[in-house]
Amino acid sequence: MLRIVLITGISGSGKSVALRLLEDSGYTCVDNLPVRFLHDFIASTREDGLEHVAVAIDVRSPGELDELPGVITSLRAMGTAFKVIFLDASDHTLQQRYSESRRRHPLADRLQRGGKSPSLQDCINTEREMLGPLRDQEHVIDTSDLTPGQLRTWVRDLVQADRAAVILTFESFAYKRGVPGDADLVFDVRCLPNPHYDRTLRPLTGRDEPVAKWLGQFGSVQTMIDDIAGFIRRWLPLYMQDTRNYLTIAIGCTGGQHRSVYVVEQLARQFSDHAPLLVRHRNQPPENIP
Q: RapZ-like N-terminal domain: from which residue to which, for each copy (predicted)?
């Protein structure tokens, strides 16, 4: 069966990293495919007997992006296994990445007026407006805090997840770095007891047994977990009826290391019967990412 992954999103958000990961995973990859060729390209891959194909489409395809959401809908209606991953990042992160790479934004020439070049922020704002409808209906990964290794892991997990049901994702994050842009529901657990103030627990994470044991002794921690789980169990069926393909629940604490990580792990255990289920820890050091 032919499976297709479409990589799209904001320029500078990591699309090339995602596409290289898929290529290394055995996907036949095509970058910057014009939207008008998508139907014909998929028909051709079927004729060639390909099973795994990845396509990157973004603002480099001028004048056609408005048609892309409709094309995706029609392909899915035809029974095509079509997964879309939308990569995004904060404006500050994008500004930093462009400054480091010294590359021009792909909209810079198109937005030039009277010999005056647009600012990078003008390009980013225009791109967000152009891609807004697509972002609203597809799975979003906010790459602002992610290393290339983390992004590759997250894309791999998402691609491997069965799309027959809602993809339920629990994600920990640090409030001091901002709320992730890919979150559908956000819960703040900064009111819980903080292991950071115990010197022996400070270097550990919420996935380590001493931290888990310490947090587990507090009734407030379990009550918070049960309340969040109860909310999700009550409303998840309605989210599933809303024709959405994913639900990302972000749990935040100050540093994204102890409390939010522990709560995410406990919630994942409570929802272990849901498939597909993904667990992400956004602000843990790379060595703590499986």
A: 3-162
